[in-house]
Here is the input.
Amino acid sequence: MLNFTGELVFGHRVLNFNVSANIKTLTLTGTTVKKGFLYAYLYDSEQQLRANLLFQKTDKTLILTPESASLGGIAGNLPAGDWQLHLYNLEGENRTPKAMHYAINIDTEYSTNTQLLETPTQACLLANPGSPLDHSIHFDYHHSKNNNAAWYRGDLHAHTLLSDGHNTLAAAAQIAEQQALDFFFITEHNICHPALPVTDKTLILPAIEITTDQGHFNVHGPRRMLNMFNAAYSSAALIEQGLGLVANDEGNISINHPMMKPWHWHYQNIQLDKVNTLEICCDPTWPTSPKATEGALILLTQLWNCGHRIAGVGGSDSHLAPHERNANATEPSIYGDPSTFVHADTLSGNGILQGLRQGHVYLERQCGLDFQINNGTVLPGQDVGNKVIDYRLAVTDKRTAYYAECIADGEVISRIKITDEDTHFQVDMSNYAWLRIDIRRGTFLNNSYDNDTAEFEGLINPIYNATKTIFSHPLVNIWGELMEETNTHGN
Here is the structure.
């Protein structure tokens, strides 16, 4: 058995070890000793990626055999020669570095310990590619669970034991099905599941959360994994590599919790035309989530006023098992809260990703929102020109009072009580560049609303009037310019 101990401040280290011929099992166990994150990427003697995982205080064990692999590992031949374990501490670039103490054991003797092997049927994302440093993801984005055009409910942001979540991959798949999710993206920090479960009802899709000191963003539907073989590891380098994991017409780039400190987005140079969606509501049971949601709504308003048609989405960002709670929370942080609904031609990877890019999206927590625009002929994200538009709104939840805020070009033009009975209203879009609907929980008395108790419940993304020149000539191009506009004109 080989033992590696040491500490790593912000930066990169390579641990080299030799694998003898004809071994049957390689077992690797690692920890950061104290609380912290340490990313690990294992490459074999042929420079093929064999595992990616996140070490934390609790021991994590990786088991590789020619036929199987535990969470984060890639099964296949175990070639003799010099293997490399690349470690990265990515915290501390813009603040005082925090040293990560690690202890790693590697055993290449035969082992019968297969307890950590994942057993469900899995869709292979990354098999041994056969050429050095090929990180391509092989996933059938055309495969469909439903060939009908419809609204599909899912979660765009979630974690498992592979990074810093508490659920196994199998448990995560089971919870997603119990939550009646049609689709489910598992978004681990800077690492990607080499294989995903295949379930009866829920389409589980590949994703990765690019995690840096200057912000986090999700890549939904990546075509390859991060290449961390002696990689540049600055925030800027990781962000640019992450943006390159998809082409413009393939995946979805979504900035996460942009106003939730200390994980807010503050990388100034990202080009806004590379961003498809913005996470508005993130784990609503987290203590600072309500304030961060209101800040993200202001930011989203400014994006549209500056001419960028970027859709708002939600994500549970759930790390916990269903019985666990965040501090002072009375509700579970669970996959599907909030849910993001995507109108797609099919329940397939390509269908969901295309719907996200087109802004055919709304999100909610629990109200059971039911709506139509022009009797279902218009979807959020579409251009309606100067037409008069008819909205129909209702909710299925009768226990709570709800109202809709109609927001056009950043101004609230009306507030309307909504119940389980249809409510209709019309808006003349010749007066506006865009119109969105916010759903809020709050008291409705004497034709007025108690805004002090209003809570964000959901959002129907905008319809647009593309005759307005703002959409052909955006006022800003990068995030830093957007923040200057928001600080100047935001509420």
The chain has five helices and 28 strands.
